[in-house]
Amino acid sequence: MSNKKQVNMDSHTITHLKELESESIYVLREVAAQFERPCILFSGGKDSIVVTHLAYKAFFPAKIPFPLVHIDTGHNFKETIDYRDQLVKELGADLIVGSVQESIDTGRVKEETGYYASRNKLQTTTLLDTIDKYKFDAAIGGARRDEEKSRAKERFFSHRDEFGQWNPKNQRPELWNIFNGRKNMGEHFRVFPISNWTEMDVWQYILLEKIPMPSLYFTHEREVFQRDGQWLAASPVIKRKPDEVVVKKQVRCRTIGDITCTGLTLSKAHTVEDIIEEIAASRVTERGGRADDKRSETAMEDRKKAGYF
Question: Structure pTM?
């Protein structure tokens, strides 16, 4: 899609991106008004980066009034951690890190073994423990309805019970953007300010706002191997099968998560403009390269019901 039709966000013309920005900022300010201890779930992926940028704009010139919470699997791309630390420093934001390795060491979760072992699912326990430890009553995430069918069921304010679980059949109406944050002791909300955005919207907004992004999103040479039709990064934390040969390819990440389940895309996209053109021509969904979504037909919904992001 050509970006020539886009209008400067500083102009008085209302574009669809400016409407989305306004809606998201409204949601973020509602969170600040209705909850006592909110936080932003920060993964280092493009969506959480955009949510953090929106929070910066929503409360400027004050600092972001919510801490950033990163659930660290210990199996992240190094580029993700480097970007996270640099962003926190530039914004002067507070950072809280929940460690999956610590959850394993204390016996809270059991590490998976085998070729398809991943710590992605283990994040749920670490996340819920972190929310309980710091008494967060709202956790702001970057999920979007266009990503995956279970996420399409989410409301802006998504209620979680005292066990951190989500019931898709028991959600509150949100007529005229009136949000009900009422909860009982021990319950909390997940809030998704960019619910109505698409992947294309996110990248066009990144282009317009000139938001710096992790290098993983752009084409780079990396050692990879192919498994089940997708390219994975060659890493000591992934056990390879005897016939899985490591080769060097020009790849980039379309989504960023745990290194064990983040598929890589063969690409020549070196700029945000290149990424926008690539997405416009793609016939593969954004999460089509996420191995954690392929474990079952309802993998994402099952994880969400248990308290996942």
Answer: 0.86
